[in-house]
Amino acid sequence: MFIDSHCHFDFDVFNDQRDELMARCLDHGILGFLVPATTFISWRRLDMLIERYPQWRAAYGLHPYFLKEASLEQVDFLGEQCEAKRVVAVGEIGLDCWPSAVDINVQMNFFKRQLSVAKSLRLPVIVHARKSYDLVLKCLREVGFKEGGVIHAFNGSFEQAKRFLDLGFVLGVGGTVTYPRANKARRVLSALESSAFILETDSPDMPLNGFQGQNNTPLSIPFIAQCVATIREEDVEQITMQTYANLLRVFPKWNEDLL
Ligand SMILES: [Zn+2]
How confident is the model at residue 3 (pLDDT cuts 50, 70, 90)? Predict the structure, then answer.
């Protein structure tokens, strides 16, 4: 059984093909989907879609890259929102040091407030971190956050990986490792303990090697699993079972409402 631990299956690009794509995923053994919200508006949309697809799990939060339209009052509703159906985490939250993102101090304020909500609810978090691992660690420390979660699309060093693992996080591994030129990411992946990572696509983003320019979908998960198995010289079955166990450890509410 495969799980996509990070996909934006709620995005509009999937509107015309969502039912069909879900059916194909189930046919291919992709049986669970963690869908993190990105903006306040998207919380409602995800609320509705989660009713339709029992295989989905939700996370609610304000994504750091989309804070231009966000307000701190929206964070006040986060706790209540997380009482909705099949919520397993707060996310996607974090820090994005891309030049076009909003001021980093504004981002840190949003991030820490959302971490505090997650801490009070004892929920893990889905962290988006672009060029910001040290600042993310600083915020986690300042909030005293101990619930763990996932560092989505991790592409840091082994030392940075260790720091997050020590705090109870796992690392999200996706399409990046399918590119032969991703030497550093592949080296880090092969050095990690098998308890250290879970599989994700970040659909519709992060297309696999050979599929550049196309929308990514959760159907990529078996290919990512195969690629990870090859890099680590393990069986794909072993990768699939271990990453599922890791997911259940980090997101303990996953099976609270059974499929
Ligand atoms: Zn994402």
Answer: very high
Is 92 annotated to bind a ligand? Reply is: yes
- Dihedral angle over CA of 155, 64, 78, 112, nearest 10: 80
Strand order across the 149-152 sheet? 2-4, 30-36, 56-60, 87-96, 125-130, 149-152, 169-173, 197-199
94-123 pLDDT tens trace: 999 998 999 999 999 999 999 999 999 999
The pLDDT assigned to 246 comes to 98
> Which residue's entry shows tokens 């631990």?
5
Break the chain into its structural domains and give their ranges.
2-250
CA–CA separation, 95 and 132 (whole Å): 6
128 is in an annotated binding site: yes
Inform me whether the pLDDT recorded for 258 exceeds 70: no
Separation of CA 208 and ligand 1 centre (Å): 15
Nearest to 37 by CA among 15, 76, 11: 11
Q: What mean pLDDT is reported for the chain?
A: 96
pLDDT over threshold 60, residue 156:
yes
CA 87–ligand 1 middle distance (angstroms) = 16
Q: Give the C-alpha separation, 258 to 55, whole Å.
A: 9
CA 255 – ligand 1 centroid, Å: 22
- Ligand 1 mean position to 7 CA, how many Å? 7
- pLDDT of residue 205 exceeding 70, the answer is yes
Q: How far is the CA of 126 from the centre of ligand 1 (A)?
A: 9
Q: What is the CATH number of domain 2-250?
A: 3.20.20.140
Q: Say whether 193 counts as a known binding-site residue.
A: no
